[in-house]
Design brief:
Layout: H1 2-14, H2 26-33, E1 38-43, E2 46-53, E3 58-62, H3 73-79, E4 84-88, H4 106-119, E5 125-130, H5 134-143, E6 148-154, H6 170-179, H7 188-198, H8 207-220, H9 224-235, H10 237-241, H11 243-249, E7 254-259, H12 267-277, E8 283-288, H13 295-298, H14 300-315
Parallel strand pairs: 3-4, 3-5, 5-6, 6-7, 7-8
Antiparallel strand pairs: 1-2, 2-4
Helix pairs in contact: 1-9, 3-14, 5-11, 6-7, 7-8
Amino acid sequence: MRWVFGAAMLAITSMAGAQPPEVPSDAQLRERYALPASHFDTIAGEPLHYVDEGRGPAILLLHGSYANLRQWDGWAAKLKRHYRVIRFDQSPLGLSGPNPRNDYELSQRIAVIDALMDKLGVRRFVIAGTSSAGVQTAAYAAARPERVSGVILSNIAAGPLKIDYAAMPQALKDAVAQDAKHPGWHEPEFWRQIMLANMLDAKAVTPGLVAQWTDLNNRAMRDPATTAGAMKAATGSLAFARTPDDLRAITVPSLLLWSSDDHEVPLEKDGRQALDLLGAKDKRLEVVAQCGHMMPMDCPARSVDAAMPFLKRVAGK
């Protein structure tokens, strides 16, 4: 996680200005990356891309930094057989638009969730968040226990993060250095190295996945100031600093789903700390073996299987 946050934030904040060359239009990007169940609407004042699939008890999936709702494709494919699976691109990422007020504070993130679920007629649901989405997932579960039947937190930071640039793999350091030579956009190798540093299964880092991250993040960087502001609000030190208090305030059934090989938020540090902090009486830490930080993309089948007993118990089916 710190490599994703650190390297990408460093690049974005130091490369403002130039327009990325040949960035596909929004229409072209929708054609490439929207799903059959995609919807586009204004939610809580933001242009939002969301997907609503399946029938049954509802599950809301929140993606991590620099990703998009397709980070959960592997989970959604299985869950939608039994559940109503809802996910959205967190502004200004993916195919969602920027917040017109440049408001990326946590209160606005909670308002988006409330408004989207109200629009879809969902009163109660399981909420799941991975990586930096742990901030808003924990905050929402703490603030809205009447709406949340259960919470899944995957590879989250249990407190403030300390970025260690020296610990980056050399290939990622080289990609960051090369990337800094062309202000205003990221080349595919930059994203490929970030994913390789955070996933054990190198075969999962396909050319298509690299192209998706390149296209959609370069889209967001059309306005570098907006992107930097959004990432600072989502992944800055103040955002992570509040997570311990939110974890203590959670009372609903809680599953911590952790990768055994997450070097960004290690199991023995963040995983155990999150379990200790959780205020819920009904809580469990489940470890997914041979999986890296980007769990939903690295080991989707094994991680969703690990979550199924919890989902059946708190959501039904």
